[in-house]
Design a protein that fits this description.
heterodimer; A: 197 residues; mainly alpha; B: 109 residues; flat
Chain lengths: 197, 109
Amino acid sequence: MSHSGTLTQNEPYEKIYFGFWLYLLTDVMMFGSLFATYLVLKGGTAGGPSAQDLFHLPRALLETLLLLTSSLFAGLARVQALRHQRKGAMIWYAIVFLLGALFLSMTYAESKELLLQGYSWQRSAFLSSFFTLIWTHAFHLVAGLIWILVVLIQLAKRGITQITFRRLSCLTLFWQFLAVIWVFTFTIVYLMGAAGL
Amino acid sequence: MKEVGKIPEWSGYVSIRSYVIGYVISLLLCLGSYWMVDQKILNGWALATTLLTLTFFQAAAQFIFFLNLGKEPKPAWNLIAFVFMLVLLLIIVIGSLLIMYSLDYRMIA
């Protein structure tokens, strides 16, 4: 029996991992409702700009690539943790943190541009649903960034134990779920918006 | 301490290979969708259907290769809960769209 096995072979790990999985599934349902709202309301521009007028595709692509790459790195961090490589896990997660922060700064820049042009959530039903969707995702990422910091501190202080590994696994799950949700945002909001669908 | 043996328990199952495969598939699908919109390859319903299909495969790739969905031993509770979520999600999303478009159509006509 290797040490890799013992990290995950305990009852709390399985129960907590499954419980966290269930939480994430309900989170997906919430995002699903927000996507449905967006699809229903995106035609309601009230004489204001439509998706085709507003969105900048190259930036959205860059955001997607950032999040996809960070999702990969979060997975690699977990592999390192499973091999008891504390330093490797911390380095990968530090990079995930930077990529996530970069993503958020791009979301912030986009929202700021729209607001400065006078296209706030108050302008039309389309923009209300757009901002709700984007910012709900962004708030999840902010929570993710704080969580990464907490896990990094715990890894630095306590090393890789059953408890810190469990937290790191749930964090990885959370981060990778957010990347999947962003894939849908990229297609439904940006690509289909730019194509005028 | 650093020995990596066979990992017997599914949620501990991770491999670098699986992550890299998932990453490459997602990357290709993502760039493919972007390219299709950028070059205006298709339009209308054909484009919408293709984009949504590519997105579906990309999400599937990430769920399988990143989140290890479907790799657990029986009883596969994570997978069962996931499928149940999908059913509810489809009812909510498709149902909302159907009702709202139908309402829109009837109000205007």
